[in-house]
Amino acid sequence: MKKLTTAPNLAIATLWADLLCHAGVPTTVQRAYNSSLAGQVPPDQTLPELWLTDADNFERAERLLVELQHPVSRHWMCPACREMIDGPFEQCWNCGAAMP
Questions:
Q1: What total of structural domains would you count in the chain?
Q2: Helices marked H in the chain — which ranges?
Q3: CATH of the domain at 64
Q4: Neighbours of 14 (CB within 10 A)
Q5: Across residues 48-60, what is the average pLDDT?
Q6: Looking at residue 46, what is its pLDDT?
Q7: Average of pLDDT values for 56-68?
Q8: How far is the first Cα of the chain from the last one, in angstroms, to the nearest whole number?
């Protein structure tokens, strides 16, 4: 096992781990419930961590995590109504046409 990163909170850690697992990089969340220790130990010691079950996936996991943290902005023009669509939408909000 190899530590990938520390997450700011349990919700983000779980989301990242699920997305990495879905991409084929087995990941677990460690220190998930240490937040109850905040104030008794240094704050950085209570944050959840993401650990890879296979250290050979480390570079791929780092790359995927950067992509998850910084998604590419997509813009496309609807072929049916010519509306400019922003964001991750795959269907026109105006007429319902599918993204080309």
A1: 2
A2: 10-22, 58-69
A3: 3.30.70
A4: 15
A5: 95
A6: 82
A7: 94
A8: 42
Alpha-carbon span 68 to 65, nearest angstrom: 5
**64 plus 99 within the same structural domain:** no
Which structural domain range is residue 50 located in?
2-69
Length of the chain equals 100
Q: What angle do CA 91, 65, 85 make, to 5 degrees?
A: 20
- Specify which residues 3 forms β-bridges with: 51
Q: CA-to-CA distance for 28 and 13, rounded, in angstroms?
A: 9
Q: What's the mean pLDDT in 81-90?
A: 89
Sign of CA dihedral 64, 57, 4, 35: positive
Q: How far is 93 from 57, CA to CA, in rounded Å?
A: 38
Q: Is residue 51 classed as helix, strand or coil in its secondary structure?
A: strand
Average pLDDT over residues 42-49: 83
- Cα 23 to Cα 63: distance, rounded to the nearest angstrom: 12
